[in-house]
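== Protein entry: sequence and backbone fold ==
=== Local backbone shapes as whole numbers ===
==== Amino acids and backbone structure tokens ====
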Amino acid sequence: MTAAGTTPPRSPSSLRERKKLATRRALRQVALDLIAERGFAHVTVEDIAAAAEVSPRTFFNYFPSKEAALFGTDPDDAAALRERVARGAPGQPVLDALRTVVAGGVSARAAELAELGGDPAEWLRRMKELRADPQLRAAQAAQMAKLERALVEGIAERLGADPERDPYPGLLAAVAAGVFRSSMSFWAASGGTVPPGRLADLAFRALADGLPERCALRDVAAHDSRKDDR
């Protein structure tokens, strides 16, 4: 679960904010293009900065590494995710809180990809192809592990549990991460026809019902596929 992760992006309200957002987008676009063209190991931060016509120092104002530029991650993501899980939707069951967080996260992720220009599902497919690179797989795995740990800690705090003694927070965190991944994957495979936030929402509802074979999650996917065939 990337940063984009958890909160839908807000429209920038000032010229400075719009310029900063444009620079962030440009750096991500360039990183994706260069790494797709040359391979991850053959692209440096200096290469990305030069292609985006900014200094390396400016690059580091936006991203801590080239991996972060590629995946759109932010150093504060894990802490923000933990806070949302621990304190969001007060009074609601933890599964409902996770449904809200993950559905918002995949929607924000799709919106961030859309802001790069072109087909957002195609950007996601390109990034998945790039992850065939062993170094990138390791970088993504490390990022996902960090975010999943934030989920565990947020769930444990919400429940007043000790994740070292209670397996429930770890299980729910793994499920939430799986819903995020499967929702984004299906969204890309469907060409973006099924809103990813809707997929995540229905996935959690199916989980709450015990994952029945007949459920709204499967119905909506089948319905949208039939609609595309017409």
Q: What stands out?
A: Confidence is low (pLDDT under 50) at residues 2-9. The chain has eleven helices and no strands. The first helix runs from residue 15 to 38.
